[in-house]
């Protein structure tokens, strides 16, 4: 095997509840506008085919215990999006929903942290969202609970003790298995891939010293504190 010019940083890994094994993160797929009320607040109404964007593997942060996130550069509108996360333990290609369910290793609570000002500026120009969505440490993800399917659950985000997002996971327009089956028609999904399933209504900004607690019934909650100075602050 050819010698590498240099070593890459190791892939981030996530905690698996009740296990010594860790989950190595491969790719992170995110579903856009997957709750009707959030789709409306972002200017979209009807159920269209799902659409996806991605975050790099190094967006993942193990949030099995409380974590700090530094306020990111080049934004003055840093938003939370609380989401149910499903992770794959096997590959999927042109899969049925039943096959997709079999490939799931488990579920966790996650945050799709977003530089909303950059995302919206890109969207207005019909450009990709990478600068708004795809950056280091933009996806804190809690402990993974092994399960093939996750029942309808309350999804709730508090910022500094105030409820900001509250819905039910059954309000998703596209379910986990539907989304994975759909994606698998376009590319082979792999063990280590992560699906962030979209956020309910109530997205908003956080700044330095704000503390978020994200909960989905039955999963380990996540605690995330923002540090550092906001741009221009
Ligand atoms: Mn999202």
List the keywords.
233 residues, alpha+beta, Fumarylacetoacetate hydrolase, domain 2, six-stranded mixed beta sheet, five-stranded mixed beta sheet, 5 helices, globular, binds manganese (II) ion
List the helices and strands and how they pair.
Blueprint: E1 13-15, E2 22-24, E3 28-31, H1 36-41, E4 52-55, E5 60-62, E6 67-70, E7 78-80, E8 82-88, H2 97-103, E9 104-111, E10 114-115, H3 116-124, H4 130-133, E11 139-141, E12 145-146, E13 154-159, E14 162-168, H5 176-183, E15 194-196, E16 204-205, E17 211-216, E18 222-227
Parallel strand pairs: 3-15, 5-11, 6-18
Antiparallel strand pairs: 1-2, 3-4, 7-10, 7-16, 8-9, 8-15, 9-12, 13-14, 13-17, 17-18
Helix pairs in contact: 2-5
Could you please describe the fold and organization of this structure?
This protein is an alpha+beta fold and 233 residues long. The protein has a single domain, classed as Fumarylacetoacetase-like, C-terminal domain (Fumarylacetoacetate hydrolase, domain 2, Alpha-Beta Complex), CATH 3.90.850. It has helices at 36-41, 97-103, 116-124, 130-133, 176-183, and strands at 13-15, 22-24, 28-31, 52-55, 60-62, 67-70, 78-80, 82-88, 104-111, 114-115, 139-141, 145-146, 154-159, 162-168, 194-196, 204-205, 211-216, 222-227. The strands form five sheets. The chain has a six-stranded mixed beta sheet. A five-stranded mixed beta sheet has the order 6-18-17-13-14, with no helix packed on it. Strands 10-7-16 form a three-stranded antiparallel beta sheet. It starts with 12 loop residues before the first strand and ends in a 6-residue tail after the last strand. Bound molecules: manganese (II) ion. Manganese (II) ion binds at residues 30, 81, 83, 112, 196, 198-199.
